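Risk register update: the risk of archive-format incompatibility is retired. Evidence:
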Amino acid sequence: MTRRTVVVSGTDAYDHELPPLPRAAPDMDTVAEVFRTLGYEDGDRLHNPTADGLRRGLADWARRADRSEDVVVLYYTGHGERDDKGHFLMCRDSESGQLRSSAVESERIVEILAENGLTRILLILDTCYAGQGAVDALRALAGSLASPAVDAGR
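Archived output:
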């Protein structure tokens, strides 16, 4: 049976130099409510996660049930940054000068969901440089979907 689920995550308080974003939690609630009115179930709500907490939280949620037929909306709000290699979601413990080791690449969150069988994903990024994040995530999802097709053709 196909389920429609909304997963919201966001960061409004940071351990390091990033300024707080007081609208993050209310925006998470608003987005979840909008999708509930459209018939979506509540998935996880990850508020102020660490980078590792965001990755693990999404993976744990995705593994809890067979979600291969599900439609998932994933909303993230918080600071976003980029470098010459891609877009990063800034989590509670992220540092601007240490993106690769302390933040979460936008493409990685889509890969985590795809690794757990999810392929119908609407990613909404409410961050700076979200356009770059969307391109990175789409590229990652396309790669995840192409790999099984290539393997099946062998």
